[in-house]
Design goal:
The chain is α/β, with parallel strands linked by helices and 275 residues long. It folds into two domains: 3-76, Alpha-Beta Plaits (2-Layer Sandwich); 132-274, 3-Layer(aba) Sandwich (Rossmann fold), CATH 3.40.50.150. It has eight helices and 14 strands. It has helices spanning 13-27, 50-54, 78-85, 125-135, 153-160, 173-185, 215-227, 245-254; strands at residues 3-11, 31-35, 38-44, 65-73, 89-91, 95-98, 109-112, 144-147, 166-170, 192-195, 206-212, 229-241, 258-265, 268-274. The protein has a seven-stranded mixed sheet, sandwiched between helices. The protein has a four-stranded antiparallel sheet with strand order 2-3-1-4, sandwiched between helices. The protein has a three-stranded mixed sheet with strand order 5-6-7. The longest helix has 15 residues, at 13-27. It starts with a strand and ends with a strand. The relative contact order is 0.12. The model has no long low-confidence stretch (mean pLDDT 88).
Length: 275
């Protein structure tokens, strides 16, 4: 099946590239390569329509100058492309996120992620901040739900820090399969992975819920998250900009949640609420 390749030129590239990647990922683009002057993005030809790009907020922003061109290509060898471009990261000198072909660093937590198409390698600001929240929290014997798990990196880190039981859910089949691979690779087989969305949540309650998705999905599913959060439980949210905090906070407070703190990186934020 053929793909469409989009070459985006962005000024300024920081944080423009990260913002564009997150928005395109939410819209159905499957893989991205960061270039010196922008990004290359890929989407299945039969998944694309011109209306899709009209929903990408950053393309309408006056803060960035963005141009693009597109062409049709045959299916890409994603692993080969990722291996050429994927670099390891270290968060707060404590947690590393790397591919199997990288050398092992001297960090307390070393997470190995196969660099495929799933979102959540730690490079994006939202994942980076969620990792920071996890690193400064005690997770021993806490029940955790990772909604929109991507590669499973957040669920994996909580399990490495003693959380149990841990569940990871993603609506995307590739993310579901990639998370299964990554929990095996990191020797945390106790993580339960499901494919789907908030409709999978039943009566089970969790001490902590992590949701790094996007603003609209968070607002849509917030009530469902709160319905399965234990009293005095914590909800960590990311996937939106600093200016979105008021609307997110208003929705959370209507459901009985209290704002605790937020982190900020490259105009993106991660926010902690408690019930």
């Amino acid at each position: 099946m053929n793909y469409l390749e989009f070459q985006f030129t962005i000024q300024p590239t920081t944080p423009g590239s990260e913002i564009l990647i997150a928005e395109l990922g939410s819209a159905g683009f499957e893989s991205f390569l960061e270039q010196e002057n922008g990004i290359t993005a890929y989407i299945l030809k039969n998944e694309f329509s011109e209306d899709l790009l009209s929903e990408i907020q950053i393309l309408q922003s006056d803060e960035f100058k963005i141009s693009y061109s597109s062409s049709e290509i045959e299916q890409v060898n994603w692993n080969e492309e990722w291996e050429k471009n994927f670099q390891p990261i270290v968060v707060d000198n404590v947690c590393s996120v790397r591919a199997p072909f990288h050398s092992k660093p001297e960090t307390k937590f070393d997470i190995v992620i196969e660099p495929k198409m799933s979102f959540g390698t730690g490079h994006h600001a939202t994942t980076h901040m969620m990792i920071q929240f996890i690193l400064k929290t005690n997770w021993e014997n806490k029940s955790v739900l990772d909604m929109g798990c991507g590669t499973g990196v957040l669920a994996i880190l909580t399990a490495l820090k003693g959380a149990q039981p841990v569940e990871a859910i993603d609506i995307d089949n590739w993310c579901y399969l990639n998370t299964l691979e990554n929990i095996e690779r990191n020797n945390v087989p106790e993580i339960n992975v499901k494919e789907g969305g908030a409709e999978l949540l039943g009566d089970k309650k969790y001490d902590v819920i992590l949701a790094n998705i996007n603003r609209n999905i968070l607002l849509q599913d917030m009530a469902t998250y709160v319905s399965v959060l234990k009293k005095e439980g914590d909800l960590y949210l990311s996937g939106f900009y600093k200016e979105d905090i008021p609307i997110i906070q208003e929705a959370c407070e209507k459901l009985g949640l209290k704002f605790q703190e937020n982190l900020e990186k490259d105009k993106w934020v991660a926010v902690k609420f408690s019930l």
